[in-house]
Amino acid sequence: MDLTPLAAGLAIGLGALGPGIGLGLGVSKAMEALGRNPEASGAIFVPYVLGLALTEAVAIYALVIGLLILFT
Amino acid sequence: MSEEAAEHGQDPTRAKPLFQIGPVALPKAVAAAVVALALWLTPAESEEHSESLIHVAIKGEVLFHIGPIAVTNSMVGTLIATLTLVVLAAWASRNSALIPGRLQSLLEFPLEFLGGVIRDLQPTRFGAIFPPILTLFLLVLFANYVGLLPGVGTVGLQVLEEGHEATVPIIRPASADLNFTLALALISFALFVSWGIRANGLRGYLKETFVANPWYMTPLMTPIHIVSELSRIISLSMRLFGNIFAGEILLAVVLALTFAVVPALFLGLEAIFGAVQALVFALLTLTYITLATAGHGGGHDEAHDSPPQDADDVALRAGAH
Question: B321 at the A interface (CB within 8 A)?
Fold first, then answer.
């Protein structure tokens, strides 16, 4: 019984749980900060995008492992 | 219905038609019809070979050989991206007017944005840091956008691969190849290590890396520090590769499953993601350089500006970019 598709599905499925929650938390805090101080959008933007990218990278690692499992 | 008629500014005493199409209902109906048509015209999946519906290859596929060098489709994509960038840069620098036209304004937008960010973060080294960061950003941007051109990933050569026919695309986006992203990540690594050595001296840089702040924490912190610096290579390359490669697969799946208008939405999504990933790559390199040149204890204000002092400060920062 070939478990390869199951492995790939589990890899990306479980691997996207944490970053999903993390991204939501980050965006919510950024929106909150923006709501308190709309003029600070310039100062918020760069750290916000950086934080999003670093958090999303964890999900991308899981995706790459899934792709490796499927295609190699 | 008469309330709608009154709403839409029509005379409610007119003979009321049986069915009235309001200004919002018509576009909605058209959109629904298009999507329904698209889904109805979807080709049925063929279950003959139990192969995948789309052609996915993690590695770039070899097209032909020039002597001992194998030319892959990713190399063709890289060539397209770099040639476009060089031609655009040469044209823009030659024909730059004082009052910019539309194309020049478009090209100046990333310059101004990145210039503002770098000026805030590293005002002293601006002239030396700005060109590599901008180059990284534009190169990654153009490399990502190769995947959106018509014909990329679809126009290919018919080859016999593992007993069944497959289409090997001629062009593949540059950053969907791990070689390209790994090379860029190594260049980033070389950049921030060399900047760290240049700013703090070789002894200073080695001291930062191998000696932790309270001296007795060194055996614990040194491996962590080394691994975290080396893992930046992996994280930079994997992030870019994963995003763009997954985007390619997403586009291929959507194109295989649906028809007409729906793939265009995902092209837009890929455009957004391509720009964001390019920006993130450049900003992360900038952050690592700032961390490396920070010196003792200065690494705490990396990408965060120091908190604004008062309202004037906030307005200044907000308007700075």
Answer: yes
